[in-house]
Each structure stands twice: as C-alpha cells, then as structure tokens.
Specification:
The protein has helices spanning 3-16, 22-31, 33-47, 49-53, 59-78, 87-98, 103-128, 135-185, 192-200, 226-240, 276-284, 305-318, 333-345, 353-362, 366-376, 381-388, 392-406, 413-425, and strands spanning 208-217, 246-252, 255-263, 291-295, 325-327. With 428 residues, it is α+β, with helices and mostly antiparallel strands. Helix 1 (3-16) runs antiparallel to helix 8, helix 3 (33-47) crosses helix 5 (59-78) and helix 6 (87-98) crosses helix 8 (135-185). The protein is elongated. The two termini are 64 Å apart.
Length: 428
C-alpha cells in the first residue's frame, strides 16, 4: 500500500485505540455484522444499477464477498491489526477488470460503504458510551477513519484494476499483431499452427469476404508522433462503430492498417451481398480531410489478403486531397499504367515537355485542367467549357497556347492523349 496512505490510516487508528470503550465498541459491531452487511448490500443494489443490470452471474456473489471482507477488515483494524496490502481488494479489482465491470460503479459502492460504515460506527459509539463528554472527539475520529479507509481501498483498487486492464490489453495487442502479420505476410497452408490460430479467430469460414484499408495523414510524418497516430486510429474506429464488418486495426509501417471481414452470403443458396469494400468506403469518407485512405477489392480467402494489402497500398499512393478515399476498383486502368511506368517515362519525355510544364505552372494547372475537362466531356468543347465555367473561346485560346509550345493540336485524340500522359508523368 502507498506509504502515505498507510501512515494516515495508522495515525487515525492510533487515535481510535485511545477510546476507553473500544472493546465494547468492537463487540457491538461484531454482534451486528449480518445487519451491516445486509444494509450495505441493499443500499448498493438500490443505488447502482450496474450491479443488477450486469448479465454476469458472478457479479452479485462477488459483491457479497467484498462487503463481508470490508466489514471483517474494519473490525480487524480496530482490534489492533496493522493495515496490510488489502489483498482481497486487489483480487476483487482484478476480477472486475476481467469482467469489464465499470470502475466508477466500484467507486460508487465504496462511497456507499463510507456512508453505511460511518452510521454503524456512530451507532456503536452511542450504544457503548451514551452521554460521554468526549462524544464529539470520538465522532471526529470515526469520520476520519472511514474517510481514510475509503481513500486507501479506492486507491488500491484503482491501481489493481488499471494494471489488470493494461495487462489484458497488452496480451490482446500481441495476439492482434500476430494475427495481422500472419494475414498480411501470407502463410503456408500446410502449417498446422497457423491454421489453428486462424481457425480459433474465425478466419477460415469459406463464406467470408475480406478487404484491406490503409490510412495515413495527408502529412505522413505525423504518424511518427504516437499521439497523432492514435488520434487517427480513434477517428477511424469512431466512424466504423455500428458496422457489421469485423475488423482488426493496428498501426503497421507508419500506416493505420485495417483488415475487414464479413459473411459474403448467408448460405450457398443466397445471393452475395454488396461487396465489403463498397460497404465500408462511405464510412471512411467521414474520417475527415486530414487523412488519405486506400481500400482494396474484396478477396474470398485469407490466402489472398496479401494481394488485397498490395491493392490498398497502391490505392493509398494514388489518393490525394481531391480523392481522399481511393477504392482500388475505381482506379482507371490508364492511371494504373502511368503509375507503374512513370519512372521510366520521365527519362524519355519529348523535347516539348519542359515548355508545357512551364506553361501549365504559370497557369496554375489550368492547361492540364482544360485538357482533362475536354477528355471527360468526350472531346466536346461546349461541354468542357461548361464544366470549367469558362467561355468556349477561352478553351480555343488555351488550345492555341498549348499548340504554340508543343506543336500538338490538343483537339485531336492522339495529341490530347499524349499531352495528358506527359502531364501525368509530371505528377498532375
């Protein structure tokens, strides 16, 4: 027990033992132990719904044992016992942590105990020394004792509860990391140990679909700050509350990594549901503007999760502030081809490329935006002008400026395609 708490409790007990009628006082309490315990239990159950609402059958029997333990401990201390480590309090706190019973409900129960024990200690004093001249002094000692006792058990219970929860969290984190690494790195299907781990975690059901999502801040270096990284994890967990999909969430390689799984169909006779990626993507848009997220396609088995991870990683690389959540299935084949070929193409760009880059930079990206709008409008100048909210003559003027620099007529398909490929290589 904390040294200062022990000293405070010892001091008030020393004062208590100066009370001349202490033997009669203790005898009165021992005679009324069943009454004290019953009143305290009834008070707790009436005031704290967590005890009666809990579906855990062990909670109420444990409460009865705890109350009996506190009453016996108070009498032991009054008889001359020294404050110990309150092992029964520590064990109770660990059990409640294991049951995930709310700590605030335990604190409320201790406050109930403070009130009930104070009343019974005052009753013992009045019964054993009626009309004593030192009645006020004794009442003061009783108040101090119950306060110090409640403080000591609350502090010890808090430390034990939190320590046990942290231990459970660490073990769960180790198991989660092990499972995540197996699923993402791939495994030998003949490995019986791995098969047992996946089967016990429920990942070998043949009717499941899986997909992977990767997230990081727009500024990736923020993941190096543990608090900011955890803030992103919390934001993702919050928007995913209520989703039917099961998930493993972990920080891996400075990215928030999520493996989703869900039943693909109820049975072999029912139609498949909407893809898992399509179900979760709208939720991920709610994470906010500060995050970029890549989402893979669905895969039908755990053995293909490494492929889904690569898809999510590529989608994340192609996400930007305009497309914060990028679903792999929505990436155009042309953009994928350019992404893979960009490094090689940058070494063989045409002679006019530098002039075009300078023109586009001066126009703050307006030239490439004009060409993209023209392509998206099926090479219809009027529709493209409407998309850009400019006059059609502005479109023709920009085409001419592009021709002056490149020698290519962007109104033709082949020239438009070539210029857009070069612009893509420059990061547009």
């Amino acid at each position: 027990m904390n040294f200062y708490l022990e000293e405070s409790l010892n001091e008030v007990l020393r004062r208590f033992r100066e009370y001349p009628a202490l033997p009669s006082f203790i005898w009165f309490l021992e005679e009324h132990v069943p009454d004290i315990n019953t009143e305290l239990q009834n008070t707790i159950l009436a005031e704290i719904l967590a005890f009666t609402d809990s579906g855990n059958p062990e909670i109420l029997p444990e409460l009865e044992l705890d109350i009996a333990g506190h009453t016996a401990e108070i009498i032991r201390l009054l008889k001359g016992g020294r404050p110990g480590e309150f092992r029964f309090v520590l064990k109770s706190a660990e059990r409640r942590a294991a049951h995930r019973f709310p700590l605030e409900a335990t604190f409320h129960a201790y406050r109930c105990g403070h009130r009930i024990y104070s009343r019974w200690l005052r009753a013992a004093h009045l019964e054993t020394t009626p009309g004593s001249e030192r009645a006020g002094d004794c009442i003061g000692v009783i108040a101090d004792f119950t306060m110090e006792y409640t403080d000591a058990i609350s502090t010890n219970a808090t430390h034990a509860y939190l320590a046990h929860r942290q231990l459970v969290a660490d073990v769960a984190g180790d198991q989660r990391t092990q499972l995540l690494n197996i699923l993402l790195d791939g495994y030998d299907e003949s490995d019986g140990r791995v098969a047992r781990i996946l089967r016990s975690a429920g990942y070998l059901d043949s009717r499941q679909s899986f997909c992977v999502a990767l997230a990081q801040p727009v500024e990736p270096t923020e993941m190096l700050n543990p608090l900011r990284a955890l803030r992103l994890v919390d934001a993702i967990e919050e928007v995913l509350l209520g989703t039917a999909a099961r998930r493993i969430v972990e920080i891996r390689d400075n990215r928030v990594t999520i493996i989703f799984s869900h039943a693909r169909r109820a049975s072999g006779w029912t139609a498949p549901r909407t893809t898992l990626a399509e179900q979760i993507t709208p939720r991920l848009f709610l994470v906010g503007n500060a995050a970029l997220i890549g989402v893979s396609n669905d895969v039908p088995s755990t053995s293909q999760i490494p492929t889904a991870y690569k898809e999510a990683l590529l989608a994340l690389e192609l996400a930007d502030v305009r497309h914060r959540v990028m679903q792999f299935s929505e990436i155009p084949a042309r953009r994928l081809s350019l992404h893979f070929a960009r490094a090689e193409l940058q070494h063989v760009l045409p002679a006019w490329a530098h002039g075009y880059f300078q023109l586009d930079k001066k126009a703050k990206g307006g030239m490439t935006a004009t060409l993209e709008a023209y392509a998206n409008a099926d090479m219809n100048v009027l529709k493209a002008a409407k998309i850009l909210s400019v006059h059609p003559n502005t479109m023709y003027s920009r085409f001419q400026r592009i021709f002056d620099v490149t020698g290519l007529d962007a109104k033709s398909f082949s020239a438009l395609n070539e210029i857009l490929i070069v612009a893509e290589c420059n990061g547009h």
